TrEMBL record:
Name of the protein described by the UniProt record: Alpha/beta hydrolase
InterPro entries associated with the record: AB_hydrolase_fold, BD-FAE-like_dom, GDXG_lipolytic_enzyme
Originating species: Salinicoccus cyprini
Chain ranges of the BD-FAE-like domain: 23-220
UniProt keyword Magnesium, yes or no: no
GO molecular function: hydrolase activity
Domain of life according to the entry: Bacteria
Keywords: Hydrolase
NAD keyword on record: no
Listed SUPFAM superfamilies: alpha/beta-Hydrolases (SSF53474)
Pfam entry (one): BD-FAE
Length: 260
């Protein structure tokens, strides 16, 4: 019988994850699921419950993680990012209790979660020198960014053009011209190459995070020598790619299968 566990990786109320173990003989590959919501407190890991359950039913252990979001203590840059790394590293501490295979770990993030997944993967790169002191201790097979906010500066400018409050400013602590070093250290496009296998999936109809964000990131990643694939889904908007009942979701499943 498939099992579900709530597991804390820290002492804060938001430092926990939901671990789902398939009803099959292990050890199981692990998909780390990182939800979006522009890092805001009103969005939580329930956003990724359907996809986590779907992947569990397909034979993957899923580690659907929560993290401190803007508005919570010590959140934003860089507490939120550190939470994600700590949650992934915590898999090593619980491996003995659950039948999981830490040689087959994939990071999958949607929207702001795509940013966090790519940022966490960059911790394995020897090219990163952002003085964050954040180290990823778990090897990963690759990263799947679903409509990921891979370029924080570009996303900030998009919100400026729309004349809306910038969730990027809230996350980083200010606009790019005032927080140059923080944007450089937090925006994954500025950390390339990260050395990890990356699959970017983005809907062409996405208005929340325009597809150009992934297009620009992919172009630079390829230029920098990263093993990166971009899949643009012509009929998809922001949320269809994380809906297990959609046809587009099968593209995501195929990406997961290609990494294990």
């Amino acid at each position: 019988m498939a099992d579900t566990y709530r597991v804390a990786y820290g002492v804060h109320d938001s430092q926990y994850g939901i671990l789902r173990i398939p009803d099959a003989q292990g050890p199981h590959p692990v998909v780390v699921s990182i939800h979006g919501g522009f890092w805001r407190q009103k969005y939580d890991l329930d956003e990724n419950t359907p996809l986590s359950e779907d992947l569990r039913d397909r034979g993957y252990a899923t580690w659907n993680i929560e993290y401190r979001r803007t508005g919570e203590d010590s959140s934003g840059w860089m507490g939120t990012c550190q939470d994600v790394v700590d949650a992934i590293n915590h898999l090593a501490q619980i491996k003995a209790d659950y039948d999981i295979n830490l040689s087959q770990v994939i990071l999958l993030g949607h929207s702001a979660g795509g940013h966090l997944a790519l940022w966490a993967a960059s911790r394995l790169s020897e090219n990163v020198d952002d003085h964050s002191g954040s180290t990823l201790l778990i090897p990963i097979q690759g990263v799947i960014s679903l409509a990921g906010v891979a370029d924080l500066r570009k996303m900030w400018h998009i919100h400026q053009e729309r004349e809306v409050d910038s969730p990027v400013s809230a996350f980083i602590g200010g606009p790019p011209e005032e927080m140059l070093e923080s944007y450089h250290a937090a925006s994954t496009i500025e950390l390339l190459p990260i050395g990890a296998r990356q699959i970017l999936i983005h809907g062409e109809l996405d208005e929340n995070v325009p597809v150009d964000v992934s297009v620009g990131y992919h172009e630079k990643a390829v230029e920098q020598g990263d093993d990166t694939e971009l899949i643009i889904l012509p009929e998809a908007e922001h949320f269809k790619i994380v809906d297990p009942s959609s046809q587009e979701w099968e593209t995501v499943v195929g990406a997961v299968e290609s990494l294990v």
